[in-house]
Amino acid sequence: xxxxxxxxxxxxxxxxxxxxxxxxxxxxxxxxxxxxxxxxxxxxxxxxxxxxxxxxxxxxxxxxxxxxxxxxxxxxxxxxxxxxxxxxxxxxxxxxxxxxxxxxxxxxxxxxxxxxxxxxxxxxxxxxxxxxxxxxxxxxxxxxxxxxxxxxxxxxxxxxxxxxxxxxxxxxxxxxxxxxxxxxxxxxxxxxxxxxxxxxxxxxxxxxxxxxxxxxxxxxxxxxxxxxxxxxxxxxxxxxxxxxxxxxxxxxxxxxxxxxxxxxxxxxxxxxxxxxxxxxxxxxxxxxxxxxxxxxxxxxxxxxxxxxxxxxxxxxxxxxxxxxxxxxxxxxxxxxxxxxxxxxxxxxxxxxxxxxxxxxxxxxxxxx
Amino acid sequence: xxxxxxxxxxxxxxxxxxxxxxxxxxxxxxxxxxxxxxxxxxxxxxxxxxxxxxxxxxxxxxxxxxxxxxxxxxxxxxxxxxxxxxxxxxxxxxxxxxxxxxxxxxxxxxxxxxxxxxxxxxxxxxxxxxxxxxxxxxxxxxxxxxxxxxxxxxxxxxxxxxxxxxxxxxxxxxxxxxxxxxxxxxxxxxxxxxxxxxxxxxxxxxxxxxxxxxxxxxxxxxxxxxxxxxxxxxxxxxxxxxxxxxxxxxxxxxxxxxxxxxxxxxxxxxxxxxxxxxxxxxxxxxxxxxxxxxxxxxxxxxxxxxxxxxxxxxxxxxxxxxxxxxxxxxxxxxxxxxxxxxxxxxxxxxxxxxxxxxxxxxxxxxxxxxxxxxxxxxxxxxxxxxxxxxxxxxxxxxxxxxxxxxxxxxxxxxx
Lengths: 368, 415
Known about the structure:
The complex is a heterodimer.
Chain A: E1 9-19, E2 25-35, E3 39-43, H1 50-58, E4 65-70, E5 73-74, E6 85-88, H2 100-109, H3 115-128, H4 144-156, E7 162-166, H5 174-191, E8 194-199, H6 202-208, E9 211-216, E10 219-224, H7 226-231, H8 236-241, E11 246-256, E12 259-264, E13 269-274, E14 283-288, E15 305-316, E16 320-327, E17 330-338, E18 351-356, E19 362-364
Parallel strand pairs in A: 3-8, 3-9, 6-7, 7-8, 13-19
Antiparallel strand pairs in A: 1-2, 1-4, 4-5, 9-10, 11-12, 11-14, 12-13, 14-19, 15-16, 15-18, 16-17
Helix pairs in contact in A: 2-3, 2-4, 3-4
Chain B: H1 2-6, H2 15-57, H3 67-75, H4 84-100, H5 103-113, H6 117-126, H7 135-142, H8 149-158, H9 165-170, E1 173-175, E2 181-183, H10 191-222, H11 225-240, H12 243-254, H13 259-266, H14 282-306, H15 311-318, H16 323-351, H17 355-360, H18 368-377, H19 382-406
Antiparallel strand pairs in B: 1-2
C-alpha cells in the first residue's frame, strides 16, 4: 500500500460492494481512502467497476453494502444534490437550451445566490478557463474542447471541495487532450481541490495523478503513485495494463529473499525479482519493460542477464526504435531504443545478444 | 468577384455555369422521384381542397336556371318595385325550368335561405305552362308566398353565382329583407358556439393526452429495450384496431348500463339510481378521443426523450438541483420539441374528428365536423359545408401560425 497521503482522509470507501442484478458483484469489497487535495485516478478497462465507484460517490448509484464517507460523514443515503460534489461528464452534459453563462449560473441559482454574486462568480469561473468571451454562446455553437472547458468551469463555479471527472477528455483529439491534461492538473494545484478522475487511458492517469488506483474485475489491483505503478507493478494485470511489457513464461526454480531463479519454457535459467511468488515450482510470468532492454554492450548495466535474440522487425517511430524479436520462444519480445546519435539500427534477421538487469525482471503471477 | 468569375472548368466553361448545369440535372432527377407522389397529392388533396374553397363562395343552382330573372335583377337595382316585368321574368324562367326539370335545383338554392321554398318552385313550375299575363296575378294565385319580399331578396342574392352568404351563415349571420347583414336570432345561432366548443374540447383533449402520454413516453425511453418493445406494442395496439371497434368498446364501457357504471354500483360508490352519464355528452367524446389520439403524443415524445442522455439530469443533480428542479429546468425544456409536435398533432386531429363524436357525443358532444357532415349528407347544403370547412381550415392554420411564433416549427420533432 502506498503511504503517500496529501492530507487527512477526505473520502473513504469502506468495504463497499455493488451489484446491479443481485448475482454478480460489479464492485467487490472496495476499500479506498482519498486525502484532501489529492488527485486520485481510477484507471481500468471498461467494466472494471471504476465508473460505478464514481457514480456511487456522486450519489447516482447506491452501494449494495458498505459505506462511503465524505469528510467523515456517511453519505450513503444523501441525495446527490446535497453532496456538493462537482462533476464533469464524458459528453460534457452542458444544458443545450441554456447559454454558457446560464449553464454556469445554474448551480448558483439553485443555491439561492443573488444575481450580483452569481454574475461575479460566473465571470471568475469563465476567466479561470479562459472562456470569458463565450458567455453568450450556446453549447451547440462550440467545439468539443471549448465545451469541455465550460463543463470544467461549471463543476468548479460553486466552489466544491471535491470534483469528480468521468473520462472528461475521452471525446477530444490527442493534442487537445494532452493540453487539457495540463490545464486540469494546473487548476487542481491552484485551487487545492480534491479530484477523483476516472479514465481508461493510462497515459492520462500517469501524467495527472498523485495516486492511481488500477481497477480490474471489481477490485483495486494496485493503488500507488504513477512511478511506483509503472516501475513496480504488483501483478501481471497492472504490468500489462500500464505501459508496454514483455512477458516470459516460466517456472520458479529457486526462491531466496529478493531474488528468484526462473526456468523459462525454452530451458534458460534467469534471475528475477520476485513480486508475488509464494513458493518454488510456481508458474510465473517474468515481466521486463522494453526500454530496460539493451543490445549495445556499453549500455548494458553491470550484472545484467544476457540472452540470445533474433530481430524480426524494426519499426522507426521517430524518437525511438521499436524492435520486435524472438527471445526464449516468444516472437513478440520488444526492445525500445532511443534514437540517439550513436544508436545502431538493427536489421530483420540479425542475431545478437541482449541484456537487462535482474532488478528489471519482475517475476509475477501467471495470467490465467 | 473577378476571381470567381474567371474560374473555369478544364474545358473552358465558366465554373459557375457548369456547377449550375450539373445541379440542375440532379434536381430534375430528384423531382422525378417525387413526381408520382406530387401528382397524387395534387389530384387527391390540393384540387379537392381548392374545389371546396371555391364551392364555399360559389353556387349557381339558381343563377344558371333563372337567366331571365338574373337579367331583370341586373336592370333593376336593390329596392326596385317588384312589378309585372319581374313576374313575367319569373314566369318565363319557371316555364323553362319545367321544360328542363330544373325547378328543384333552383328551389334548393333558395331553400338554403328561406325554408319551404323548394316546394314553392316545383309546384309553381308545374303550372307555369298554363300561365297567362298578367303574370303577377297568375303567379300570386298559385301561392301568396311569391309576394314575400324575403323570397325576392333571396332570389336577388342567388342570381349571382358568387356570394359570401354561406360564410355569413357559417358565423351565424344572415341578410335582413333590406339586404343588411344582421346576426341570426340567438335561438338559431349554432355555428359560432360549435366552433368555440370544438376548440375548447380539442384543447382539453390535447392537454389530457400530453399529461397522460408524458409519463408513458418517459417510461418507454428509460426502461431496458426488451421491456420497452412490449410496452410499445401496447401503445401501438390502438393503431392496429379499427377506430369503430375502439369507439364502440368505449360505448360498452361508458354507457349507463355499461361496465364502469355497473362496477361502481357494485362497489357501492354510486347509487343505482344515480348512474353516471359518461356517454352521449362531452365527457364521452373527450374520454374516447383522448384514448384514440394518445399514441400521437406518445410517439413524438418518446423519440425526443430517447435522445436526451441521462447525464443531463445527473449533471443538474450534481450541481445542486433537487430532482424536481432538475426535471423542470433541465429535462422538461428539452422535451419541448416532442411536446409541441405531439400537442399540435393531437389538437389538429381533434379539431377535425368526426366518427367518435358522432357515435358517443350525443347532442352536446358534437363537434364542427359533425355539422359539416350533416350539411354534406342530410341538408345537402354543400356550400355551407364548404364554408364551415374553410373556417375550420383557417382556424387550424392560425393555431399552426401561433405555434410557429411561440415554439418554432423547425423545433418540431415527429419521430
